[in-house]
Design goal:
Elements lengths: L1 E2 L9 E8 L4 E3 L2 E2 L5 E3 L3 E4 L3 E6 L4 E4 L4 E4 L4 E12 L3 E2 L3 E5 L2 E7 L5 E7 L1 E6 L7 H20 L10 H21 L13 H4 L6 E13 L5 H9 L2 H9 L5 E7 L7 E11 L10 E4 L2 E5 L5 E6 L2 H8 L14 H11 L12
Parallel strand pairs: 1-16, 10-11
Antiparallel strand pairs: 2-5, 2-7, 3-4, 3-6, 6-9, 7-8, 8-10, 9-10, 10-13, 11-12, 12-15, 13-14, 14-20, 15-19, 16-18, 17-18, 20-21
Length: 356
C-alpha cells in the first residue's frame, strides 16, 4: 500500500518583475534581480525595498518593505509583512489559508500573530486551520487532496469523507510525524510497525467512537513531485489503494500529514489514515467568505477578531500607500478593481496611468 512519486515536478514559481526603493529584495538571502525566478520552497524577503512578483498561474503580488514569504505548491506562506495579490493566487499565514479565484486582496501578517485580510475587489474565502495543528500551506494541500478524493469516491457512489475534529487530527499528526521521521532517517518507505514506530492501529489513541481502518503513503520523494491531483490519480490506479481509500463504505474520514521539504535536499512524505466514526463529533468550523470592501482581522489561531466595512477614505489611504504608489508594472486584475472602485466610490481612483 505504498505510493511512489509521480514523474512531473509541480512547484510554484514567482518571477521578480519590479524592485523599488533600492535593491534589498532577496531570494533565499541572496540579492535578487529583475526577471529572476524563485521556486518552491525558496523564501523571498525584503528589507527597505518593495517588489512585484509574477506567479506561474498568471497572478501577481506586490510585497511591501520588511516582508517575508515562502513559496509553496498551493499558496505562498506569509510569515511577516504585507502582500497585495491580484489574480488567482492563494495565500497562507501560520493559521489561515486564503483562496482566491481572481480578485484583488491584501494580507498583513502582524507581529502579534494576528492576520488582516482586506478584500479590495471580488471575494476571498478564509479557512482557518483546525487549532493551528499544522502550517496553513500544508492544510490547504490536504483540503485540496480531500476534495480530489471525494470526487473519486462520488464516482463509485461512496459517501464523501468528512472533515476531522482537532482532537483526531492531533493524534494523526503525532503518529505521522514519527513515521515520517523514521522514513527520512532510514531512507526507506514503510508502514507503522517498522523501524521502532508502532502500528497505527495501536499507536493512534482516538476519541471514543473513532477507529483506524487503513494506512496509505506517499513515499519519500523529491520535493515538489506530489500534488493533490497526482496523488489521487496514483491511488486511484492501484486496486489496493482504490479499495482502501475510494471504495470503502466503512471509512467516514481520512486524516493525513503532508510533510513538505524545508530545504532543496529534504524529502517530501505523506502519511494518511482512513478512519471510521461511529458517533456524531464536531468537525472543523466552516470557512469565512470575505466580500469586496471588507477588512477582517483573525487571531493567531484563526478566529475572527473583527470585521470592518471600508469606506472611500480607506480606499484612498490604501491606493496612496506603499502597495500602489511608485509601481509601473500593472497587475492582472486591476481592470476589475478599477471598475469596482469607479462604480462604488466617487472621487477615488487608482494611482498612475499604468493601473487605470
Amino acid at each position: 500500500m505504498l505510493a511512489m512519486a509521480p514523474s512531473a515536478v509541480a512547484a510554484e514559481a514567482a518571477t521578480v518583475k519590479e524592485i523599488l526603493d533600492g535593491n534589498e529584495l532577496f531570494i533565499d538571502a541572496r540579492q535578487a534581480r529583475v526577471n529572476q525566478t524563485a521556486l518552491t520552497p525558496q523564501e523571498i524577503t525584503t528589507l527597505n525595498s518593495r517588489g512585484q512578483l509574477l506567479f506561474r498561474s498568471g497572478a501577481a503580488a506586490r510585497i511591501n518593505r520588511f516582508t517575508q514569504l515562502r513559496l509553496g505548491k498551493s499558496c505562498f506562506l506569509l510569515a511577516k509583512g504585507q502582500v497585495l495579490v491580484s489574480g488567482k493566487q492563494s495565500g497562507c499565514t501560520k493559521s489561515l489559508r486564503l483562496s482566491s479565484r481572481g480578485t484583488n486582496y491584501i494580507v498583513l501578517a502582524n507581529e502579534d500573530g494576528s492576520t488582516d485580510v482586506i478584500v479590495l475587489e471580488g471575494t476571498v474565502v478564509a479557512d482557518s486551520y483546525i487549532d493551528s495543528l499544522q502550517p496553513a500551506e500544508q492544510s490547504q494541500l490536504l483540503t485540496k487532496l480531500l476534495e480530489q478524493l471525494n470526487n473519486q469516491r462520488q464516482q463509485l457512489g461512496t459517501p464523501r469523507f468528512q472533515p476531522l475534529p482537532a482532537a483526531v487530527q492531533e493524534e494523526i499528526n503525532n503518529y505521522g510525524d514519527s513515521l515520517i521521521k523514521a522514513m527520512r532517517q532510514s531512507g526507506g518507505c514503510f508502514h507503522g510497525g517498522n523501524a521502532g514506530v508502532s502500528s497505527p492501529f495501536a499507536a493512534v489513541r482516538l476519541p471514543s467512537g473513532w477507529s483506524v481502518l487503513g494506512e496509505v503513503l506517499g513515499c519519500p520523494a523529491e520535493g515538489g513531485l506530489y500534488t493533490p491531483e497526482s496523488l489521487t490519480k496514483l491511488w486511484w490506479g492501484s486496486p489496493i489503494h482504490q479499495r482502501i481509500v475510494f471504495a470503502s463504505q466503512k471509512a467516514t474520514s481520512i486524516g493525513c500529514v503532508w510533510s513538505q521539504p524545508k530545504t532543496n535536499t529534504d524529502k517530501e512524505v505523506i502519511v494518511c489514515l482512513t478512519l471510521k466514526n461511529d458517533q456524531a463529533t464536531a468537525v472543523a468550523p466552516p470557512p469565512v467568505e470575505i466580500k469586496a470592501g471588507y477588512q477582517f482581522r483573525f487571531s493567531a489561531d484563526g478566529k475572527i477578531l473583527s470585521s470592518v466595512k471600508l469606506g472611500p477614505d480607506d480606499y484612498k489611504a490604501i491606493l496612496n500607500g506603499p502597495l500602489f504608489v511608485g509601481f509601473t508594472t500593472t497587475m492582472p486584475e486591476f481592470e476589475a478593481l478599477y471598475r469596482y472602485i469607479t462604480e462604488t466610490f466617487k472621487g477615488v481612483s487608482l494611482p498612475g496611468p499604468a493601473e487605470s
